[in-house]
Design a protein that fits this description.
Blueprint (H helix, E strand, L loop, with lengths): L4 E2 L15 H13 L16 E5 L6 E7 L2 E2 L2 E2 L6 E3 H6 L7 E6 L1 E6 L4 E6 L5 E11 L5 E11 L2 H4 L4 E3 L1 E2 L1 H9 L4 H17 L1 E4 L5
Parallel strand pairs: 3-11, 6-11
Antiparallel strand pairs: 1-8, 2-3, 4-5, 7-10, 8-9, 9-14, 10-11, 10-13, 11-12
Amino acid sequence: MCASYGLDPRFSDQQLIEEADDELLEGIRAWARRNADETVRPTGRLLRNLNPILMPAASGPALEEAWWGFLVDGRPSRFPSINTRSERLQERPGSLRGRAIVPATRWFEMQKPSRVWHEFGLDGALFGMAAVTQRGRAEDGSWFTCYSIVMQPAPERLAGIHDRMPVLIPASFANDWLEGEPSRQLMDDALLASADATERVQSATLTAAP
């Protein structure tokens, strides 16, 4: 389960999506600077943070600030919704109708039973995490795009720390993920596309909770 991640504005110009323009990357950096390198946590009734995601648009991928976790009847969902298992999307591809890419430079997991925190990333590089989206209404009547990060089984070398990790979407597959037909084949292809980045993930032990 990914319950927190980070977005450092000092990331390199590595692309989240092929032919990404400078304005999109600068928008991500600007959000990260405003966030002052704070750990990104799920949005809630009290913590009303909205986080940057890439959404499909007629003119190409667009940056939008979105609610992490789903809203149901004006409140954060009572069922776990900040993450969605890739296996569930393979079985129920209708849930792939809304999709996004979440920019990050690292994510965090707590190892059990030791309760030691670990950081994962690609040596400080910017990367994209697959997400599914839906619209949701908050208690005040405001509507938001809500997102849930797609999780896959972790490779054996990382599974001793945590058994799940995000599906990492490379730039070469980003347009496919955002614009492809919602189907089991799309989820299967995303997992295959994620394999190279998954093998390059590095982990580090933290001395304190993020």
